[in-house]
Amino acid sequence: MTDAPDGQMTDGATAGQAQPLLRLAGIGKNFGPVRALVGVDLDIPAGQVTAIVGDNGAGKSTLIKTISGIWQQDHGEIIWQGRPVRLHSPKDATDLGIATVYQDLALCDNLDIVANMFLGREPTRRWQLDEVEMEIAAKRTLADLSVVSVRSVRQPVGSLSGGQRQAVAVARAVMRKAQLVILDEPTAALGVTQTRVVLDLITRLKSQDIAVIVISHNLSDVMSVADRLAVLRLGYLVAVGPKERFDAESVVDLMTTGTSRRLAAQPAETSSGSPSEH
Amino acid sequence: MSTEVHEPPDAAEADEIAAQTAAAAAPEVIAGSLGEYARIWWARVRGGESGALPIVLGLVVIVVYFQARNSLFLSAGNLANLMTQAAWIVMLGMAEVFVLLPGEIDLSIGFSSVIGATFTVWLLQPPHPAPWPLAALVGLAVPAVYSGIQGVITTWLRLPSFVVTLGGLLMGEGLLLYLFNVFAPNSGGTMRLYPGVLYWIEAGAMSPLAGWVVMAAAVVLAGALFVVRDGRRRASKLAAPPASVTALKVAVMAVAGVVVVLIGDTNRGHFLTVVRGVPWVVLLVLVVLVAWSFLLGRTRFGRYVYAIGGNAEAARRAGIDLSRIRVIAFTLCGLTAGIMGVIYASYLGSVSDNVNGGQNVLYAVAAAVIGGTSLFGGRGRMLGAVLGGLIVAVIYNGLELLGLGADAQNMWTAAVLLAAVAVDTLARRNRPSQ
User: Fold this and answer.
1) How confident is the model over B198-209, as pLDDT tens digits?
2) Model's pTM, two decimal places?
């Protein structure tokens, strides 16, 4: 696969609208001879859920790690609210308002919900932790997210269910004024009920006009919660567009072969530039 | 009612709810009444978040056993003696908590504490003794720096603290011998602590009146703090402990204070001499306990110490400077060990180069672990180390009263340590999650 795609499909979702919150323009990333990402153009609009799907090794992780500042792209530009930005570290991304919730959630099981939400940025009052202020803010954020069934914000996180833990991790991001929340496989380890909790949570984020990127293997979850889909294959973005243009079968086709005959009927929506196999 | 508080429709369901919440949310902030508090608290005990209860129960059982074997055990004289015996173990246990919480260990403090005390005692030697505050300060600073350096080595080179501080233990034993060769070559390995302020920490006692005043002031102050804190929570519409629970806590503290002062004020002199009053060292332990509990429970530093012990990677991603917190924790461990060194010199009336620093530090780890501090980090409290240290001291003291020697003392301490860890581990298996 040497030749770059001739023409990435432009997705009509944001064309003609106000600028997207985040625009990726021609992002490329190489690891030695391996081209992990090639010429990825992707718009992430505010208030919408963008799902990034793809098989293992398609470049999903590389893409979100680039957006969250862990790795710098080799080619292309990241444009945040219309301004080109350079993300040198995760802190740069966090400072812009990009929060990434990784699969391991990075929570301290021995600390309670409030302590976890404020970890690293606790307000103080005369040298003391301002527990009252923290607890009020934590409760408000959790209430805004309609996080169900947390009996007390003073419960240690270790006693929470998987969905609740995810909710705490997301609430922490929201409380820090994140405008874009990236969720990495948020439902991977969860049962049916807990998955429901997390999907509801994603919907709530959207309603607060926060942009969400979801990485997931689970197509039914993706289909139920996403507004837009972006399909990666072998480092190329092979298709992107509103969810309605896809169905489970076409997504699987795109993930595995880069094209879909089902989408071929609607030529404008598939990418003519899928990587060709030699 | 807020979402926090769950009205119990009937006892069975309330019990169920309590069990779910066993979750270790502190009962103070969920319970609406004393009864509910008790239920949630009991659910937590069953769920493995037992707090101080098993330690106190264990202490009671051991005390009852010794009293049954020798009626002198609970005499005022022996109990006052016990306070002075326990103080150094308790202090060394508190020191160890600082490093156990972030998941480290410091084996060197058994010797470094005595090295600090050796400087202190040397500075106080006649004919030109240094001012005692200076001597004490040096005694605290030396172990603090000693542990701090080991903390730096541990974090910068990413070596296991067990190995680094094991080296510190051996090095400390050597340094102690060296110091005695330099400071007191003809002393036979012992330097006397001459009577002075530091000497009276262990040997001296508050006057009965002072004992009562200090006790009353401590209880009133603690009560006032509780009331102010709860008031602020209520004013912000947050759940606060019911007044009855707070009253009960203050009452328990008051009873404990009265008992200590009563024991201290009973004449424990023999024949014609009258000896009474609470030993000063009790006040010193209390002050250190309050200060370190505040540091761990109410400040950012303390929060980060727990966070590192719970999930170091999460703490790192939250922007916490792990190396800095760890080095400070090691330094505070050494500082507290320095206090112990001064107490130890005061207790023995001297310092000696053949102190068993290896065994002392193991007593300290035992005190901390018996008191509920996890060897894996993230769990434990200063108060636990005090109670755990008391248990170690009671065994020590009780077996001595029974005429048994070091062989029995060590075996008993080992058995209690195993029992404490086993109880803790078994109870933790009952936890709802994890």
Assistant:
1) 999 988 899 999
2) 0.86
